[in-house]
From TrEMBL:
InterPro entries assigned to the protein according to its UniProt record, in alphabetical order: Glyco_hydro/deAcase_b/a-brl, Glyco_hydro_38_N, Glyco_hydro_38_N_sf, Glycosyl_Hydrlase_38
Gene3D superfamilies: Glycoside hydrolase 38, N terminal domain
GO molecular function per UniProt: alpha-mannosidase activity
Signal peptide range in chain numbering: none
Lineage: Eukaryota, Metazoa, Chordata, Craniata, Vertebrata
Name of the protein in question: Glycoside hydrolase family 38 N-terminal domain-containing protein
GO CC term, one of those recorded: Golgi membrane
Protein source organism: Amphiprion percula
Amino acid sequence: MVLILQDEIKTQQYRQHTTVFLTVETLKLLFPDANSRNVKYRLSALQLLDVYDLLPFDNPDGGAWKQGFEIGYRGDEWDEQPLELFLVPHSHNDPGWLKTFDGYYQDQTRHILDNMLQKLKWAEINFSKWWNDIDDQKRATPGGAGQLELVTGGWVMADEANSHYFALLDQLMEGHQWLHRHLGVTPSSGWAIDPFGHSPSMTYLLKGAGLQNMVIQRVHYAVKKHFARQQTLEFLWRQTWGETEKNNNHDITCHMMPFYSYDVPHTCGPNPAVCCQFDFHRLPGRRVFCPWRVPPQPITDQNVQERALLLLDQYRQKSQLFRSPVLLVPLGDDFRFVETSEWDVQFTNYQKLFDYFEQHPELHIKVRHRRGGAWGRA
Ligand SMILES: [Zn+2]
């Protein structure tokens, strides 16, 4: 069978008909003259196209968060309800990008999965090749321990701009059938961090395939900034016909990542120069480094307080963009966790930071993780 699929063709499709669900407070800001009846109507369906008309699409320098704005907080926001950190280690593998599917599998993917001792997001079905290669004893490990979550579950993290819906559906069906047959698993969350633009067709298919939640990333910075200001980066994505239905069966919970990328510099908080210091794969002497020229430091008893507070400041700033007390912080990049030493260097350093948080309840931050190796479970 030939699958007509292309991962991440760079296209612009921002002016698509997309419906998002926003809150009354946001709508009042957007439409100050609307009477309550209008607001109620608007509440049930807001076209993203309407938002485009509001945006100047200028590009002012936002400071540390170049395409955003300065984020402030008082410091007592978490006194009543602590900030809950949900850290998600992930590795983004591009099947068939610069190497062939098999080439990536041999050089990187199988090593990543072999080394999988901690929870890891896995979105592409090159997992199935590895599954066929390993023995039963290994098979019992990651799923049994609940350390691996299979997200989306298609053949690839599909391009959503150019692909025909038939191809999107076909690759999703094949992936889900494989998962059901071999693992008895149906994914509940979507993970689309690298497709260039997002499509309501894909959203519709994901919901139809049983998914309840989805994460998206590559959205125009002006839209991200606008949603961040309104704290609407988490919303129910509704199909255009959803407003006329009695119950909105097609709604799906969507989290839009706020910053420029899905790498560590752009996921801990708004300042990439700071967040990069918490990507311990970039410690001096390793293969990658921080382009902001401030390298990470290994966490020690001497620096743990200063480092933990620096990181907490980024987490707190990022949390100001959301209404939820739970903060999603992805920790990964392209082809990460290939070598065992990378697992170790990330885990041991983060463990020291998180131990510090735990020993200091006055900081009001709880990290969702389990002792003995796995971080995060939602
Ligand atoms: Zn990619």
